[in-house]
Structure formats: C-alpha cells, structure tokens
Amino acid sequence: METQNQSTENLLEQMAALQQEVAELKIAKLALEAQNRMLENMLNMAESPKPGEILDNILLQAFELSSKLTGAESGCLVFLGSNGAVQKSIPQEEDLTPVQLILTSESYINWVDNHRQTVPLADVLEIENLRSLFNQPPFMRSVLSVPILRKGKLLAVLTLMHSQPGYFGHVIANFMQSMSRQIALATEYARCYDELDSYSNQLRKELERAREIQRDFLPNPLVSLPGWEFVACFYPARQVAGDFYDTFRFPDGSVGLVVGDVCDKGVGAALFMGLFRSLLRIFSGYYSFELPKQTEEKIPDVVLPLAIDGELAEVPPNTVKVIDALKAIVLTNNYIAQNHQRLCMFATIFFGVLNPTTGVLTYINGGHVPPIILRASGALERLKPTGPAVGTIYNIDYEIKRVQLEPGDVVLSFSDGVPDARSPEDVPFTEQRLLSLLEAPASSAVSLVERIKTEIKSHIAEADPFDDITMLAVRQNLPISTN
To answer: 302's torsion region: left (phi>0), alpha (psi -120 to 50) or beta?
Structure first.
C-alpha cells in the first residue's frame, strides 16, 4: 500500500512538472508569436514611415497585443521622456478613465520603478499604499505591473488590469516578463527612429539653407558684354557642392573667369568652395589694371613666371598690369597651404582674365581639367595646367599663359564631373565622348552647352549623381554682316 501511494505521489509530481513544462512552452510560443508579429509590423512601418508616428504605433501595438494575449479588461501603457515624466500614453490622456489616470501618476510609476520586475498583484485593495489609488470605479482588483527596461533604464510602464481578484498568475507574469524585453526593443527602435527623423528634418532644412547660400556665391546673372557670350551650368551631386564658377568685371573692363573643383564632396567641400571663391575675388581685387594699347602686332603666346614680391621677368611688349590679378592664385594657394594644411583640402582652379577689346585670354590653370578652345574653323585646342592644384604646396610657382581668341571661338571650361558622369550601369561619360560633341562648330555658346547637357542627362538617366557637374563657356561672337 505504501509503495502504491509513493507511486501515485511520483506520478502526480511528474504530471505537475509536465503541466509546468507545457505552461512554459505555451508562454514561449506566445512570446515568439508576439515577437514575430511586432517585428513584422515594425518592418512594415520602416518601409513606409510617417514622421512622428512610429513610436505611437509601436506603443499602441504593444498595448493591444499584450491586452489580447493576457485577457486584460483594462490597462495603460505610458512612455517616459528623458526626464522620467510621462511623454505619451496609450490610451491617450484625454481618453483615460480615473483608474487609468492613476497609472500615469508619479507615485505609481515610482512604485513600479522601485520593484524593477513584473509584479502580479492578486488584489490591490489588500495593499495599503495602493488601496487608496485604485478604490474608485471602474473597480479593478487584479493588477499586473510590467516595467519596460532597456539597459537598466525605465523606458515605459505597462499595466494590465482585471476585475477578478487573482486573475494574473505567475504564468501570465512570466509571459509578460518575456514580452517586456520585446516591447523594450521595439520602443527603443521607435524612439531612436523618431529622434533620427526629427534630426534629419532639421538637417535637411539646414542643408537646404546652405544650398541657397552656396548658390548665392555663384554669379547671377553672369557678366554681360557686347560681342561676347557667357553661359554656365551647375548641377551639384548633393545638396551642397565643391564645384564653383565665377565671372566678374575689373575696373579696367577686363573679365575674370573662374572654374574650380574642391577635392572631396559634400559639406566639407562646400565650405572650402566658399573660401576659395571669396579669396580669389578679394585677392584679385587688390590690383589696379590698365588696358594694353591698341596694336596691330599680335601679343605672342609666351610663358611668364609669376612673382609676388617682384616684377614679372622678361615681360614682352604691350604686356601690362592686367595679369597681376592672377597673383590671386598664388596668394590663395599660400593661404590654404599655410592655414589649412592639416585638413589636406585643395582645389583645381582655372582662372583667366579676358580682355574683351583684344580677345586676349591670360590664364593660370592650377591642376584643373584642361579647358577646350573650339575654334570657328572646328579645330580644338587645350589649355593645359600651368601649375599644381591650389592649396597643396606653400609658395609654389605658377606660370602665366595667354591665348588669342578670334571671332567665333568658344572657350569651354568644365569640372571632371562632366567626363566622370555615370550611367545606371556605372559607365563614365568619358572625355572622348565630350570631344566628339565638339566636332561640329557651335553657332553659339548656349547651343554648345545645351548640346552637352542633353547628352549628359541622357547618359545619366535615373542613376544617382556621381560628382558635381559644372561648365562655363565663353564665345566671341562673329561680326554682324552688313551685306
């Protein structure tokens, strides 16, 4: 008989252990299903997010899912701000019942924070410090307090309630303890996403403002002179760019022509773009100018060594102070190399001074893509670099060169974003293709630039911009026929 009783006790113990194991498996299954459901909804929201709504949706989803899985009749989920005060609540504050309002109170949240674990309360009316809080309709007797913790910090408090005393047992408490970790992860994700979205919107506005300021650096309108055409196009790869172009008049009537490309892309390049452009304007304006005397003798295309502290060596006849403006390249180079060497920022720059009366273009090419002269006859010439990129080496020598422009000639200066423009298949536009577009003489600078722009846009199609694209074209118009 004793042996039979012992066998019965062992069997009952095994059945109890089995029931406990089944209960734990059910909890694990419910937790996994809930986790999968929350994860699926999070992914759906992330694919088409609405600013400011992800956190609200996650909180609502967590509350409704917890209530459904536990059979709770009422409850509340509060999300705490960085100062520990209630920032959001589900239901929303205006829809809370008197009892639900209790769950948003500082005293209740402090009570949950002190316990730091899921606590099932069989009957709140039997707990002295909670009786006064819950002793009002609608009467709720069972309460399950679930702290939502992330890295030791209380993010939120979920409270589930039922009118039946002892409704929330340890099985439900264990399940919600597991659920709380999933809610914490989802809540943290949503909070971070909303903060990132808010920051992104602010950054987007700042970048748009920076874009407006940078565009204001570019000349609008370009210089306008009788008998000459000046045309430019500018397409930044991002909100702000490192490319720039400029045209400006000197007191003597000469015209400054600049196309530059700061190394790198984005905000850093844009900041230096403004610095390079401003330095060139300021330094070139330090000098006075005189126009060369009219002469039938064509000025020879010679190389002049440029000095800062002395006169130009071997200056040919009729060469005057107009070329002093190009000292701005040397001064800019020295300023950048001396004051910003640590940042390793530099720019390739083509800087020319055009005498619109004689058609002589005096220039320095500081490591820039060689501009192209498309002669009226269809011949092509390149204005190769006369020195390194600006800002690389302190006190470097730059050479000055000059070229004679004739009626119908076009000077096309551009950044390397033109040949480097990429197709959706990542195929570059190439300089060879650009040169092929120049085989036919241009009737105007506008038509030439439009021809190139059309081809580049067709090549890029729907691809993301690879680099800034900048072009500046100058054309001496043909004389108007009187016949």
So the answer is: beta
Q: Is the pLDDT of residue 45 over 70?
A: no
Range of the domain at 130: 14-199
Better pLDDT: 138 or 47: 138
Alpha-carbon distance 58 to 189, whole Å? Answer: 9
Cα gap 145→177, rounded to integer Å: 10
Distance CA 65, CA 57 (A): 12
**Residue 388 located in a structural domain:** yes
CATH number at residue 248: 3.60.40.10
* One-character DSSP codes across 296-338: SSPPP---EE--SSSPPTTPPTT--GGGGGGHHHHHHHHHHHH
- What radius of gyration, in Å, describes the C-alpha atoms of the chain? 38
DSSP 8-state class, residue 359: T
In this structure, the answer to whether residues 72 and 125 fall within a common structural domain is yes
Q: Contact 275/289 with Cβ under 8 angstroms?
A: no
Instruction: Confirm if 77 and 56 have CB atoms less than 8 A apart.
Output: no
Residue 44, H or E segment: helix 2-47
Estimate to the nearest angstrom the gap between the alpha carbon of 256 and the chain centroid.
33
Per DSSP, what are the bridge partners of residue 148?
A: 156
- Which residues make Cβ contacts (< 8 Å) with residue 237, sequence separation at least 6? 265, 417, 465, 466, 467, 468, 469
Of 367 and 217, more confident: 367
What is the C-alpha separation between 6 and 39, in angstroms, rounded?
49
Alpha helical stretches, state H, 255-402: 266-284, 327-339
